Amino acid sequence: MKGVFTAAPFTVALGATAAFAGALAPRAKTPPVVVKGNAFYAGNDRFYVKGVDYQPGGSSDAADPIADETICKRDIEQFKKLGVNTVRVYTIDNSKDHTTCMNALADAGIYLALDVNTPKYSIRQDKPGPSYNTPYLQNIFATIDEFQKFDNTLLFFSGNEVVNNVPTSKAAPWVKAVTRDIKQYIGNRKYRPIPVGYSAADIGQLVKQGFEYLCSLG
């Protein structure tokens, strides 16, 4: 697959505030990544992705690996041994809290590349129009709301191999629309400019055309 956040009551309140501030404070190891020209930069340094896919259970039993503190902390130790700086997660549950695992990833110097679609909410190859609907967009936007607050959210994928042969190319306008919607939503909400992309299928006859289409205006 290619890729084309002295009194007891006072003491408690202070502790809660400090904990919240610490959860959202920028991590020195993972400054926000931005796009400059055709490259990623973390601060003034060029950023090169060295990563792995991370979806315990696979596509048949996909679960949210960064909502489970035990699982993610266990696996982060292996990521550190591999020397990766990015993990890609294909599906999450945006109703859950991801602060602990995202901070643990950040402390290990690891960014997250996140697909916004889920098995329940995604653009269907056979019926792209009807699947592009209000509940679908609301779910995507809720995912953005959850993860924009972490500096180590590297990017959002608007789709994954939705177009993987000539017949499914009819879904391309809907992929382009979702990509546009995500960028506009991030801008309208005044979030930091998190990169947005699409993960294209490695099909020779489609890669160049798909790239040119998704990058074109209109």
C-alpha end-to-end distance: 25 Å
Major sheet size, sense and barrel closure:
6 strands, mixed
Strand content: 15-25%
Tally of separate helices: 7
Given as residue ranges, the uncertain stretches (5+ residues, pLDDT < 50) are 1-24
Structural features, described:
- By secondary structure, the protein is of the alpha/beta class.
- Helix content is 40%, strand content 17%.
- The strands form two sheets. It has a six-stranded mixed beta sheet.
- Strand 3 and strand 4 (45-47) form a beta hairpin.
- Helix 2 packs parallel to helix 3 and helix 5 packs across helix 6.
- The two termini are 25 Å apart.
- Mean pLDDT is 86; it is low at 1-24.
